[in-house]
Amino acid sequence: MEENILKKISFSAIQPSGTPTLGNYLGALKNWAALQEEFNCIYAIADLHALTVRQEPAELRKRTLAAISLAIACGIDPSRSLLFVQSHVHTHAELAWILNCWTPFGELSRMTQFKDKSQSHADNVNAGLFDYPVLMAADILLYNADVVPIGNDQKQHLELARNIAVRFNGIFPDVFRVPEPYMPKQGARVMSLQDPAKKMSKSDPNPNSYVSMLDDRDTIVRKFKRAVTDSGAEVRRGEGKDGINNLIDIYCAACGKTPDEVEREFAGKGYGDFKLAVGEAVADVLAPIKAEFDRLMGDKAYLEKVCADGADAALGVSSRTLRKVYKKVGLLQIK
Ligand code: TRP
After folding, report:
1. How confident is the model over 108-151, as pLDDT tens digits?
2. How far apart are alpha carbons 76 and 29 in whole angstroms?
3. Ligand 1 pocket by C-beta < 6 Å: which residues?
């Protein structure tokens, strides 16, 4: 990683669970590349977190490589940022264990994601699912992160990580830097194309409701053509027009235009023309990413080198924090 001591440290991670959607891209991944200007960035592929729900082993391996490729295709530059796979760096699981011993059971029981997932995966409510936020705290605290770019769904987990750090520092002073949440300025919230009251999600059973980042042009255009809108005709934002509001937001994010500009551009035109334009604009944004993704997936030697170099560098940084923690809590140090 190219380290600039004047820049703050940003840490973020993504689970290798299926191809991200257009919503994941416009809401998060797109900002990851931009953050490299402002921060020393650290990005992990959280494969240990993925194990908290059942995975097909061969599929998980494939998705992990795909996640690395996609991160690079989205503009994360491994020579500028630290990019690695969580399970390649053993300090994460080790710090998580220590932090477990300073995290009250009651605090973890209040995590809404645990409650939700215990319902959606009722046949497999395992200890890892319960402990998930502690591993996440370890991820962040190992690297002295100043900021953590997150969406709303991870806010409570970050709050817990902050509590863990503050409590630990209260007993053993000056060990952890307490991270701040970082909400990117223009993170778009993309809604389902079939039910615009719901967030776009790759776990939606209807594939027409979301655009995958790796969909081809025809598929993207077709999904936008079928997007659910209201019975109106004018391309204008408005109450009760969730479908059109969503398409306008997507078009703005894809072209860098404002909603006013979009309304002017489509004055006198109908929903059909507009849907086609949104589909094409999105396809134009995703096409170069998919091309670069395909190229990288064909270059396994390069991907393995990125992973190995990333893991090396991550281990170097995180070992310093882990050693300090082991010493503070009284684990015997030998040379
Ligand atoms: N739990 C996060 C998610 O599913 C992924 C994650 C793991 C993460 N460790 C992290 C995010 C540390 C931010 C910081 O989105």
Report:
1. 999 999 999 999 889 999 999 999 999 999 999 999 999 999 88
2. 9
3. 11-15, 46, 49, 136, 139-140, 148, 150, 154
Kindly tell me the burial class for residue 57, based on how many C-beta atoms sit within 10 Å of its own C-beta (0-12, 13-18, 19 or more): exposed
State yes or no: is 202 an active-site residue.
yes
pLDDT tens digits for range 172-185: 999 999 999 998 76
Q: Tokens 């967030």 map to which residue?
A: 199
Rounded to the nearest whole angstrom, what is the distance from the C-alpha of residue 129 to the centroid of ligand 1? 13
Phi and psi torsions of 55, nearest 5°: -130, 150
Q: Rounded CA gap, 290 and 287, in Å?
A: 5
pTM of the model: 0.93
In whole angstroms, give the CA distance from residue 164 to residue 169: 8
* Ligand 1 atom having least distance to the Cα of 153: 15
Domains in the chain (CATH in brackets) are 8-187+300-329 (3.40.50.620), 207-294 (1.10.240.10)
- Rounded to whole angstroms, the Cα distance separating 171 from 184 reads 33
Q: How many residues does the chain have?
A: 335
27 is written with which tokens? 């809401």
Whether residue 199 lies in the annotated active site: yes
Which run of H or of E encompasses 43? strand 39-45
